[in-house]
Amino acid sequence: MKKEEWVRKAYEIAAERYAAVGVDTEKVLATMKDFHLSLHCWQADDVAGFEVQAGALSGGIQTTGNYPGRARDIDELRADILKATSYIPGTHRLNLHEIYGDFKGEVVDRDQVEPKHFESWVQWGREHGMKLDFNSTSFSHPKSGDLTLSNPDQSIRDFWIEHTKRCRTVAEAMGKAQDDPCIMNLWVHDGSKDITVNRLKYRELLKDSLDQIFAIDYAHMKDCVESKVFGIGLESYTVGSNDFYIGYGASRGKMVTLDTGHFHPTESVADKVSSLLLYVPELMLHVSRPVRWDSDHVTIMDDPTLDLFSEIIRCDAMDRVHYGLDYFDASINRIGAYVVGSRAAQKCMTRALLEPIATLRRYEANGQGFERLALLEEAKSLPWNAVWDMFCLVSGVPVGEDFIPEIEKYESEVTSKRR
Ligand code: RNT
Ligand code: ZN
Fold this sequence. Notes:
By secondary structure, this protein is an alpha/beta fold. Helix content is 43%, strand content 12%. The protein is built from 14 helices and 12 strands.
């Protein structure tokens, strides 16, 4: 029997089983088409970027591994991203960092960046149906140090304020050109390796810098701010902590970014959704997989990610969340890493959408605790994978593991030849 036939048959049966628990699989398929990930450009080249004057990766983040074939320039990166998206169902956005500008061989310092450096990206995005999101880049620069936007040295702080302001003009230009808001994330690594006795001072400076940066309102971009627990070499203190940015976002009406690697290992990121959404307009996600620390392993269909997406759906908040990915694994095929992580996130969303929520809520309202638990457990083994396979089939991308040999082929023909 041909694979397509299996998929269709399995889907037919799955649709009936889901209908029996009150779930419309056709509706789920339609919703999945509107579920867009924001693919992080930095998975293809280990967060290197295209600055002529590029230095080593800094800012408390690290890629480990030396798998051959990383994208070395803008053309390779674009080709790799297109290759990856050809195995990911649906249409997606691309999340760029400032250091990925098309600088055309020129030294453009961070406080000199302009929308023109991203014109070719806008053009490329239009050609390939990918809308763009954006990030300012405070790391991997001679002025990065331990403190950027919270640096007591006025000239360094001003440099980074200027950089971030300019990044917002880039994001605004992108949003305008694509007629859809560009989501600009702001993460700075600012912190301290050892005990600091000036916790308040740096936070006051960061708050003031942010207020300066956000002084202008733009119509075509939206800001989000990302907290963190700690960075490598900055273990004792993080200026932009979770509390800091929740306070900032809630008081200034800014989106908060939840990077799933930026919390204590047993903390539930899923449980934050319903609280935050009461106080901030929208959320940005950086879906990642922390292994013991913020290791940025490739996203998989694990319990924390399933819980997170389920919570978003249970909050009826699918449209108030932006779904960025954020991992950088340099130890395996990088295009494969894109595909595995993206498909895993999509599987989590498929499962979240297939939850028999109406019945579960009725049980809960009636105090039927056993029934609620039983259905939650049984729902785990309902044939969600048949719906996922069908989504891949109708989207014209490989069903199941069929993308493995294709990525192997691209590796042998293209990426393995890069030295
Ligand atoms: C770092 C943050 C940040 C970066 C990217 C490259 O801990 O997660 O989002 O990963 O901006
Ligand atoms: Zn992140």
